[in-house]
Amino acid sequence: MKALIATLAALCFAIQPALAENIPEEAREPVRVMVLGAYHFANPGADLNNPQADDVLTPKRQKELAALAETLKTFRPTVVAVEARAKPPYADAGFDDFKPEDLARKRNEVVQMGYRVAHAAGIERVYAIDEQPSEGAPDYFPYGRVQQQAEETGEAERLKIMSDFGAMMARFEEEQKSKTIPELLMFWNGDTLPDDFYWNIMTIGQGEKQTGAELAAYWFMRNAKIFNKLVQVTQPGDRVILIFGSGHRAWLREMVEKTQGYELEPVMPYLQQAADALSE
Which domain holds residue 75? Predict the structure, then answer.
């Protein structure tokens, strides 16, 4: 059934732009997007700063994730988009194979939040819209080059200070001992996470060798392409839950806010509602 619906969704994907062109801009209902910044449940260790997440497969954490899904369902989503990759039209094949039993054995936040919410809300449109460089394309996060230049120019200590979020990671790990997953997600979606790293790193560089500016530009490019994929898979009136690592959150939120036809749905009230439900 999911495969059939995915095929129908692909056909709709092909004809929607033509249909949308016939709707006057002022009459189009906006696409409402909730950006949910996540931490990595399965501890892949792929980021510059990597907190250690506790086991989300425990009964306690599963109860918290179930409460979160029930709360997010009240947003009435029509689309879930996640940090995974697929070819156009970007339908997530992983969701085609999803079974509720997977929640007891797969730790990845794509499954635990993305697939769980989509299943709970009864929607089939789950899209994998992450962006990674193709062969021969530039690295979207060339931190090693920035680090090398900083060492060559005596700025290694300054780069280390702007790149080190160790204290924040330690705080998060400590808060896991007493807080629920909705509360922990509030940590990653509130004002705790600084979003000035990419502005500050642009100051690393000398002459025409501007490695910090290049890193910031490539990171913006990655997020811009992610957002473009979101545009491709949505249509006027859609209600989207976009689940990506919290490092993407600031740019994706701004892209939603600044793009005509898209509106940002605040995520914090839903996280607070889920936290309150668990405290009753």
Answer: 24-141+216-279
The number of helix segments (H) and strand segments (E) in the chain equals: 13, 5
Q: How many domains does the chain have?
A: 1
- Whole-model pTM: value is 0.88
**Which own/partner pairs from 95-102 qualify as long-range (CB within 8 Å, at least 24 positions apart)?**
95/2, 95/124, 95/126, 96/2, 96/3, 96/6
181-225 per-position pLDDT tens digit: 999 999 999 876 667 889 999 999 999 999 999 999 999 999 999
| CA distance readout (Å), 227 to 8, 61, 173, 220, 262 | 23, 30, 30, 10, 11
Coil vs helix vs strand at 11 = helix
DSSP collapsed to 3 states, 178-243:
CCCHHHHHHHHHCCCCCCCHHHHHHHCCECCECHHHHHHHHHHHHHHHHHHHHHHHCCCCCEEEEE
Q: Is 200 domain-assigned? A: no
Closest residue by Cα to residue 51 from 245, 241, 243: 245
Would you say residue 98 lies in a domain?
Answer: yes
